């Protein structure tokens, strides 16, 4: 099972080791959100980039803003307005979710803790320090700053665009690469499906921007968030380069690069 849709019955006491993402819908209370998102990355190291994502309606977000504006100087205690807890309202409008969460839950500062020196706790401390240094909350790291480029309606000159036949061929070849990579890594990635290694959206983005990818380094802007691909850029670029050579044979002569025509 790759996706579980559940009620709060799954919130407490479930220790699946390698849950990558938790999606919480319109959360009303900070305790609930904390418990739900606490299901991700239960075993340190099994998930490189565990994420907790909350989708919130515009109406709830507007309500949160009004609640915080009404009580800007204190936490409001247990104040609940139309089902929304003031603590959750503060989290929704905070510039840094993690910092506000520390304040709400009165989390001790790192220097106030007496660290355990066992290997597991030391690793947890290292991960926590990395998180604090590179906070990934939506306030500190807005989505528009993520590395995956926005697709453009006309990503390349018309003469360079891929035909439907090329797109079908390229998609098939990249899906085969994804499947081969999954078989290679299946003993180390737990229950992650092949699509997690190279999602369909990334395959489409690679093909949409095909003419911009001229070296293995160019791939970073399109797949840098896919950690399982980090050691396979050269292999992926080899496939793209092979596709480029094949695509050139499918283009009419007037659309082929001059050097390609000369060689023929």
Pick out its properties.
two-stranded parallel ribbon; mainly alpha; two-stranded antiparallel sheet; disordered C terminus; single chain; about 260 residues
Shape: elongated
Assembly state of the chains shown: single chain
Distance between termini? 51 Å
The main sheet orders its strands as: 1-2
Give the integer mean of the pLDDT values. Answer: 81
SSE class: mainly alpha
Radius of gyration: 24 Å
Order of helices and strands: EHEHEEHHHHHHHHH
Count the domains: 2
Uncertain segments are 145-154, 258-264
Helix content: 40-55%
The major sheet is characterized as: 2 strands, parallel
What is the overall number of helices? 11
Beta strand count:
4
- Strand percentage lies at 5-15%
Structure commentary:
The chain has helices at residues 30-37, 58-70, 86-93, 97-104, 119-133, 164-185, 194-197, 200-208, 220-223, 233-250, 258-263; strands at 21-25, 51-55, 80-81, 84-85. Helix 2 packs across helix 3. Helix content is 44%, strand content 5%. The protein folds into two domains: 8-145, no CATH class; 158-263, no CATH class. The strands form two sheets. A two-stranded parallel ribbon has the order 1-2. Strands 3-4 form a two-stranded antiparallel sheet. It has 264 residues and is mainly α.
